[in-house]
Amino acid sequence: xxxxxxxxxxxxxxxxxxxxxxxxxxxxxxxxxxxxxxxxxxxxxxxxxxxxxxxxxxxxxxxxxxxxxxxxxxxxxxxxxxxxxxxxxxxxxxxxxxxxxxxxxxxxxxxxxxxxxxxxxxxxxxxxxxxxxxxxxxxxxxxxxxxxxxxxxxxxxxxxxxxxxxxxxxxxxxxxxxxxxxxxxxxxxxxxxxxxxxxxxxxxxxxxxxxxxxxxxxxxxxxxxxxxxxxxxxxxxxxxxxxxxxxxxxxxxxxxxxxxxxxxxxxxxxxxxxxxxxxxxxxxxxxxxxxxxxxxxxxxxxxxxxxxxxxxxxxxxxxxxxxxxxxxxxxxxxxxxxxxxxxxxxxxxxxxxxxxxxxxxxxxxxxxxxxxxxxxxxxxxxxxxxxxxxxxxxxxxxxxxxxxxxxxxxxxxxxxxxxxxxxxxxxxxxxxxxxxxxxxxxxxxxxxxxxxxxxxxxxxxxxxxxxxxxxxxxxxxxxxxxxxxxxxxxxxxxxxx
Length: 497
Prior knowledge:
Elements: H1 10-13, E1 31-35, H2 38-41, H3 54-61, H4 78-92, E2 96-100, H5 103-106, H6 117-132, E3 136-142, H7 148-151, H8 160-176, E4 182-187, H9 189-199, H10 212-234, H11 236-239, E5 242-248, E6 251-254, H12 259-281, H13 287-299, H14 312-318, E7 325-328, E8 332-337, H15 350-354, E9 356-359, H16 375-388, E10 395-400, H17 412-430, E11 436-442, E12 461-463, E13 472-474, H18 476-487
Parallel strand pairs: 1-2, 1-11, 2-3, 3-4, 4-5, 5-7, 6-8, 7-10, 10-11
Antiparallel strand pairs: 8-9, 12-13
Helix pairs in contact: 4-6, 8-10, 9-10, 10-12, 16-17
């Protein structure tokens, strides 16, 4: 069940705190969407033949590492309520819906030798229904739910996982390619590698900051490249689709006009986005990453760099394995110089390798530490991607949204945030010539927000997690977003270019 709640005053009166919004129409080919991910919404964690995956294991083994000891066992119960979710999307008027496949729901032990037909049927029904309602599915193959058997093999620290992922990708192309024209291989490898294998802040909770981040990055981009080549060589001619990877980054703004702070910001972008984007779009790791990690490794007395060296064959194999650029972003920070390659030598550490100090402006609107209202930072990031990476002809924003820490149905802060970010996007398109062709709000539903459990709310639809039926209630932002999609305009009167 879901229900609408009417808020009479907000629709016409939202002024975005008197911030002037762009009065240009969104281009005719611009597409709007909403996003979710399998573990965050599906529930049914052990039903109908699904195998255990990393976050099942992590939340059950270390419940104390999740706020309020929450887990995704039921989540939004979208495994049973997927029809309601598609009705919400249909009513909203989106062009596309970004969703992910649960690897272990399709392959309970991770390998193609054991296919769970119940899982195949579940996703087939969703994809068929989306297509029947003229909603394009943007399908992510991996959104952090690694089959637990591969975690036991070392997870993304083990390059062999790239081969298993390639097998899963090929099977997915075979099973669902008739419905899917836009494939995303992997979601946010930076978050997986830095927080999952570097700081221990997310599953699997490993703390290997000196080398785990880089080994994880290597395996992720190799897995992506394998999946891309499989599609390119075996499926593109008949399915006529396209493939990319979702990369996430905040924008790093220099903390001052000093040259060392400007260099610090460039270095920050190289270690965050560049570590994953550079091999795919430009070839090889960013040079500053090669130099800093290599020099610091030598100063630490190591016989070789902690950064895996890509062979010439690997550089060639990974380069140009993306048909468009997928961007997730939520905030901005300032970067200042902290240490050089010969300074602060001690235990190997990813953050010492970067050598910067980061901070936020206390004036920036924010209620969590990872989402902040800085639309000019978003515009800067779009321009950076457009100019920094070779061959990028199109950018699709695959996640962006506002986080609340309590249930707010009249969520004017979210409307304010998304309004200003969409306005900055239009400025990047019209003023700067950045070809941004899509925007995807995170998220359609309030859901399980990883280690934050259910304490952070990013949905434009509220889900009552205390209700066995998981009642859905559209928020004010849902109605506002629906109006923007219908009018293709942020203000009452728009002009055409």
